[in-house]
Each structure stands twice: as structure tokens, then as C-alpha cells.
Write a structure and sequence with these properties.
Largest sheet of chain B: 2 strands, parallel
Oligomer: heterodimer
Shape of chain A: globular
Number of domains of chain B: 1
Number of helices of chain A: 13
Distance between the termini of chain B: 19 Å
Strand order of the largest sheet of chain B: 1-2
Largest sheet of chain A: none
Structural class of chain B: mainly alpha
Largest interface: A-B, 54 and 56 residues
Helix content of chain A: 55-70%
Distance between the termini of chain A: 31 Å
Strand content of chain B: under 5%
Number of strands of chain A: 0
Number of helices of chain B: 12
Structural class of chain A: mainly alpha
Radius of gyration of chain A: 21 Å
Shape of chain B: globular
Order of helices and strands of chain A: HHHHHHHHHHHHH
Chain lengths: 370, 373
């Protein structure tokens, strides 16, 4: 940690990162906008955690997973089934086992991790676009299963989960700042944890698997096993976010894991940038800001928003923003930022090329000569 | 390699045996084991219809229903598979094209008949069904071509980016559909409400098939016929015409094909347009059979994905095989999972879709007919 050896980009980023961390640490304490603290920022932290699990898989595993939202929501459903009690207030569906909330949280995270292990094992021989398709089917299957199996959820989902928090955390409705700091703390732990994992021997061989699966396989590395473990870890991270989401929203329903929500998480990750872990929270923040401040009354020039020419809602705007990001900078905002420090670096890959007469070979990344 | 096979044999044989056992059990269960559920109670052996031997006509009906659903699946998914096969583009907007086509056809049919919300079959003649199809299909071809030329042409080869682009397109289309459709319904205008497209009157009767006394809906037989026609048509087009030959050459080796002087970009455009047209055809057919409502875009994207994942990406035969397997698993699970009184396990049928995918992928990671990339 010697600042004099840092590059300009590292210096700038680390200063900004430290400043942001200090700002969010003191935010509720000094009494800045509580709407921001308890809605926008908490949501940013917990969706950022889910997006981080997606980016982890994509950046270091070469697997873009659309199952993270399903895992995220499934945690909440398991937690709701185990922790909530029925009775007069408990009109929602679910088993209402009423177990000890701490135990329920642990089991919910473990259960989701186990689902990740199974799903990861099934999909582990695919990457890239195939992986995307397989995990998309996971997510849709999760939605329909939760919706149809009325014993555990049903379409209305499970409510009142935030009333059954562990005793050592206390009542989150009365003390929303606790949830804020728990979410912030978890987000920091997840960030540091992922940065650490990718530097371990496992993380390094995972990157080898991402770039050269055939070579890694012939070197004796178990390629599907690495992918399975990476997916399991990502499921664990998503589960952490899922518990926080259940506490924050109180209710978890199949609508929280359906296709639009799955796409939303993907949009967050893509806006932030699929190649850097910081992008998770940047993307989540940008998305949630848009979600909160673009309403049907917002006037957008040319689109006649909330009005006549185009009609539509927030989703049309988010779709257009998403399209622009993917077209202009596939690496998202962090990619754009990175370009500032690398003049002439990645622009060539973007839109400058003339329409390809012979499309690039698509099966395999080009083998580097080394 | 041979050493690896030798050492891994016990490990790979066990799951294979387990899977084969599962399949055999499922077949036996449907054919012999199960019994009709009593009004109350019941156990793992009780289902709505009982075994195939006990009630062959219900069994046959479910087989026919599966075939009908498989036809619709095949029509839609073959478009998806065609595009993926040639261009390696995963068109995540395929479901949105389906939905848009359904609504356009509905509006045209309403415009022609000038009725309200829901029409009975007798009020629709053949033209009032064909013209909506003939309007919707070209509309979707144009939308597809705009997306392809505007966004996909210059990102060719970047699979993930193309998937993301088409996801963005599908988000926009889905939202715009909610904002603008259905237009002709009083009271529930806009908002993507469920509406019915209507079959022409002559299909609204039951045909005696003279097999086990089964009376089967003519409309469903028409779906089946259209599915078979699409399959035969695609096969003739791909294997018996020059364009088809060029497309197949492009699938096998894009650069070589292009080096031979074939304009691969034109092939891409044609394929994409045909793929989108198949989504539109499938939408009109299946919306006449069931209905059309917002949210079905995701469902049909999933249907197409499951079909091509099971069948093998990018192969027309794979799409047919995948559609059949998926339709049979879905329909039989819905009818033959154990029922106990009012409470039943048929709600777990979606999970069997996952079991199907898992089974196929664990033995053939690229699907039944998939080739190694």
C-alpha cells in the first residue's frame, strides 16, 4: 500500500473510493436526507451485492449469469418460510415455521448456496452465451415454481419478513439505520471478499479457465469444477443480498424474481460495467436513481414522456439508456472511465469499425501467441 | 483420452443408469402404474386420468395436445434456432416479436370484423384470419430487419453484446406494447390486457379420429398441420434451394462462404427476417388457440430457449426434437403428476422442465442435436 507506486488511475479511484466510503458512513449519522439513506442508498447496497455476484462470474469466470436474481429472491422466500409465524397477522402464504430467525438466516443462505451448487453443476460445461441461456431458464423456472407452488409462496409471496429479525439485530422497522449499516457493512465485506478471492490460487485458476478452458483442462485443472465452485460462491453472495432485501422490503414474491427483475439486475451490472467489481454498486446506484426520479410525469424532450408520442413508462427510458450503454460502451460506466486513462485503448473495439464483411470468428477467443 | 474414458467409466455409468431408470419409471407410471384419484385422499399412485391402459382416450388426447403444443413451440423456436445457427445471435427479443405480432394481428382482425373484445368463431371467416397473419408477419419482418441492420450487423461476432442489445430492444418493445395495445377494446384499452385472436368458423368443431373414440378439435389439428408444414417448408428451403445451400454453407464456415463470393450479409438479413416471421406465424397460430397478453414475451422467450437448449442450438432438427420433448414433458407433467383430492402435485410440473434440461445437458452439453462449436 505505497501510494507513490500507484498509477494516476489508481490514485484518483482510491481517493474517490475513500471519499465515498466516508460519505456513506456518516450519511445517516449527520442527518442527511433519510429518504436517500433508507431507500436509495440501502437499495443501492443490497442490489449492488447481487450485481457484484453477477459481475464476479462475468469478469473472472466468463459466465454471464441471469440466475442471480432468482437466487437472491429464493433466499428471501426460504427465510420467510422458516422465520415468519402464522397467526392473526400472518395472512400471506408460506409454511410459517416460526424458527429462530438467526437459524433461519443461516439456513436460507446455506439453502441458496446449495441451489447454486446444483444449478452450477448442471450449467458448468457451458460458458458465454450458452451459460446465459441456461441461467435464464433457471430464473424463469424459479418464478413459475414459486408462483405455482402455493405451499411455499404462491403469487402473492411472503410478507412481514422484516418483523422476524434476529434478536441481536433488533427491530429494523424502528431502527432503519441498523439496516443501513448492516447493508453497508455486508457490501464492504462482499467487495473486499471478492477482491481477495480473485487473488487466491482458486481465483487465478478460475481466470485461466475463463480464458483457456482447453489448456487448463489439459494442464489437469477440473474446468467444470472451477465453474461450479465459482457459481456456488456467487450464489452465496447473492444470498447475502437476498436476506438484506427481505428485511428491507418485508415482502418477497415471485414478482421479485421474474424476467423484468432479472433484466433489471443485468442492466445494473451492465451500466456499471461487467468487467469491474466496483461497477456493481455504481450501476445499482445509477439504476435506482433513475427508477426513483423518472416518473410518469417527467418530461423528456422528443419522447413526449407520460404523454402522447411514445407513451410508455420508466422502462422505455431504462431500455433506451441500456441500449445506448451497450452500443457506446459495452464495458459500462467503469469502462468509459477506464478509457479516460487509456487514450486510444479500447475505442477500436467499439463502433468505429466499418461493417464487417467477414464476421469475426466466434467460437473461441483468439489464442494469444505466448 | 482413452485412459480418461476408462477411468471415468463407473462414474459416468451410474448417472446414466439412474437417468434411464427415471425415464423407464415415468413411462411405466403413465402406462400401467397410476390409478384414477378418488374424490378425497389419494396417494402417489393416483392421478386425474389414471393409467393409459385404463383410459386410452384421455391418454391419446394428451398425446395429441402435446403434439399440438410442440407444433407451436417448433414454429416459434425454429425461428430462434435458425437465427442462432447462422449468425450465432441469441435473439432475446424473439418473445417480444411474438407478442407484438399477436397484438398487431388482433388489431387487424378487430378492424376487419368491427366487433368488440371477444369474437365467437362463427363471426370470423378464413380471410379475416389470414389477413391479420399476412399483415403481422411482414410487420415483424420489418421490425426485425431494422434491429438487425441497425444494431446487430456491426456487432456481428460479439455474442454477448448482441444478446444485451436484443435484451434492451425487448425491454423497450415490452413497455411500448403496454402503452399502446390493445387499442380496440372498450374499457380496458391499453395496458397489455389479454385479448383473444379468433380462428375462422370452420375450424370450430370436433373431428372423430376413429382411434379410441377420440373427438379432437379441428383447430388444434390445424395447428399441428401448420407446424408440420413449417417443418417441411424449412427443410425444403434449407436443403433444396440455392439460398438454403448458401445459408448452410454460412453455418458451417462463414469466412469461406464469404470468400467464395457469396454476400453473407444478405444471407444474414434473409435469415433474420425469416426467423422473425416464424415468431409472428407462431404468435398468430397460438394466440388463436389460447390468447395474447403482456408477459407472454418472457414466456415464449423461455419456451424458445428450452427448446433450443434441449434440442441443440441452431439446428432445425434439434428444434423439432426439443419442441417434442418439452411439450410432452410439460403436458404429461400437468396431467399425470400424482393428485390427492383437491390438493395436487401438478403444480410442480414446472420443476420437471428443469429436470429435462438437467438430464439432457448432463449427457449432451450442447443439446440433443448440437454440434461442438
Amino acid at each position: 500500500m505505497n501510494p507513490s507506486t500507484w498509477t494516476l488511475q489508481q490514485q484518483v479511484e482510491r481517493s474517490i473510493g475513500a471519499a465515498v466510503l466516508v460519505l456513506v458512513l456518516i450519511w445517516p449519522a449527520v442527518g442527511f436526507s433519510s429518504y436517500w439513506a433508507h431507500q436509495i442508498l440501502v437499495e443501492t447496497f443490497l442490489f449492488g451485492i447481487a450485481a457484484a455476484s453477477l459481475i464476479f462470474l462475468s469478469a473472472w469466470g466468463g459466465m454471464v449469469s441471469l440466475a442471480q436474481t432468482a437466487l437472491f429472491g429464493t433466499t428471501g422466500i426460504i427465510l420467510g418460510n422458516l422465520a415468519t409465524k402464522g397467526g392473526p397477522g400472518g395472512v400471506s402464504k408460506g409454511l410459517h415455521l416460526g424458527w429462530d430467525p438467526t437459524l433461519a438466516v443461516v439456513l436460507a443462505i446455506l439453502g441458496t448456496t446449495l441451489l447454486g451448487l446444483i444449478g452450477g453443476a448442471v450449467a458448468s460445461r457451458s460458458t458465454g452465451i450458452y451459460f446465459l441461456m441456461i441461467t435464464l431458464t433457471y430464473s424463469v423456472i424459479a418464478t413459475y415454481t414459486l408462483g405455482q407452488v402455493t405451499k411455499i409462496s404462491g403469487f402473492s409471496g411472503i410478507g412481514g419478513i422484516n418483523r422476524y429479525t434476529p434478536g441481536w439485530i433488533g427491530d429494523l422497522l424502528a431502527h432503519p439505520n441498523r439496516l443501513y449499516y448492516i447493508a453497508l457493512g455486508t457490501a464492504v465485506v462482499v467487495y473486499v471478499g471478492i477482491r481477495y478471492i480473485v487473488r487466491t490460487p482458486f481465483g487465478v485458476s478460475l481466470q485461466g479457465v475463463r480464458d483457456e478452458p482447453v489448456r487448463m483442462s489439459s494442464l489437469g485443472y477440473a474446468v467444470p469444477f472451477h465453474r461450479t465452485i465459482a457459481f456456488t460462491f456467487a450464489a452465496f453472495v447473492a444470498a447475502l443480498g437476498g436476506v438484506l432485501y427481505a428485511w428491507w422490503a418485508g415482502q418477497v414474491a415471485p414478482g421479485d424474481v421474474d424476467l423484468p427483475q432479472t433484466i433489471s439486475l443485468l442492466i445494473m451490472a451492465v451500466i456499471g460495467g461487467l468487467t469491474r467489481i466496483e461497477g456493481a454498486w455504481i450501476g445499482a446506484f445509477a439504476f435506482i436513481l433513475m427508477q426513483n426520479y423518472i416518473t410518469s410525469s417527467t418530461h423528456v424532450p422528443l419522447l413526449g414522456f407520460g404523454g402522447t408520442i411514445f407513451g410508455g413508462s420508466f422502462n422505455t427510458i431504462i431500455g433506451i439508456v441500456f441500449l445506448l450503454i451497450v452500443v457506446v460502451s459495452p464495458d459500462g460506466l467503469t469502462g468509459l472511465w477506464g478509457r479516460l486513462f487509456r487514450p486510444g485503448g479500447r475505442w477500436s473495439k467499439g463502433g468505429g469499425e466499418p461493417a464487417a464483411t467477414v464476421a469475426e470468428s466466434v467460437q473461441k477467443p483468439v489464442v494469444d501467441p505466448s | 483420452m482413452i485412459d480418461r474414458l476408462r477411468t471415468e467409466r463407473p462414474l459416468t455409468l451410474a448417472p446414466k443408469l439412474l437417468a434411464a431408470g427415471l425415464v423407464v419409471f415415468a413411462l411405466l407410471y403413465v402406462i400401467v402404474i397410476t390409478k384414477v384419484a378418488p374424490f378425497t385422499g389419494g396417494n402417489w399412485r393416483t392421478t386425474t386420468f389414471g393409467s393409459a391402459l385404463h383410459d386410452p382416450s384421455s391418454f391419446l388426447k394428451i398425446v395429441l395436445d402435446s403434439l399440438t403444443f410442440a407444433s407451436a413451440l417448433f414454429i416459434v423456436a425454429s425461428g430462434f434456432a435458425l437465427i442462432f445457427g447462422l449468425m450465432r445471435t441469441v435473439n432475446m427479443a424473439h418473445g417480444s416479436f411474438y407478442l407484438l405480432a399477436g397484438y398487431i394481428a388482433y388489431e387487424v382482425q378487430q378492424g376487419m370484423t368491427g366487433q368488440g373484445l371477444s369474437l365467437s368463431s362463427g363471426e370470423v371467416n378464413t380471410w379475416e384470419w389470414l389477413v391479420p397473419l399476412l399483415v403481422a408477419a411482414p410487420c415483424i419482418m420489418v421490425v426485425g430487419l431494422v434491429v438487425q441492420q441497425g444494431f446487430l450487423r456491426w456487432t456481428q461476432g460479439q455474442e454477448l453484446r448482441q444478446a444485451l442489445i436484443t435484451i434492451a430492444v425487448s425491454v423497450i418493445i415490452a413497455d411500448q406494447i403496454i402503452a399502446h395495445f390493445p387499442r380496440n377494446v372498450q374499457g380496458q384499452r391499453f395496458g397489455g390486457n389479454a385479448v383473444d385472436l379468433t380462428w375462422p368458423g370452420w375450424t370450430d368443431r370436433f373431428v372423430n379420429l376413429h382411434v379410441g373414440g377420440v373427438q379432437y378439435s379441428l383447430a388444434k389439428l390445424v395447428v399441428l398441420g401448420i407446424g408440420v408444414a413449417v417443418g417441411v417448408g424449412l427443410w425444403l428451403w434449407l436443403y433444396r434451394t440455392k439460398t438454403g445451400m448458401k445459408i448452410r454453407a454460412g453455418v458451417d464456415d462463414e469466412k469461406m462462404t464469404s470468400a467464395l463470393g457469396i454476400n453473407i450479409q444478405v444471407m444474414f438479413a434473409i435469415t433474420f427476417a425469416v426467423g422473425c416471421m416464424l415468431a409472428a406465424l407462431g404468435a398468430v397460430v397460438w394466440a388463436s388457440q389460447s390468447n395474447i397478453s403482456s408477459g407472454q414475451d418472457g414466456q415464449w422467450l423461455l419456451n424458445s430457449l428450452v427448446v433450443v437448449i434441449v434440442g441443440g442450438m441452431g439446428s432445425i432438427f434439434g428444434a423439432a426434437a426439443g419442441a417434442l420433448l418439452y411439450a410432452f414433458v410439460a403436458n404429461f407433467a400437468a396431467s399425470y403428476l400424482p393428485t390427492t383430492g383437491s390438493d395436487c402435485c401438478t403444480q410442480y410440473s414446472t420443476i420437471l422442465t428443469f429436470v429435462l434440461i438437467a438430464l439432457v445437458l448432463s449427457f449432451r452439453p450442447r443439446g440433443l442435436f448440437g454440434k461442438a462449436a
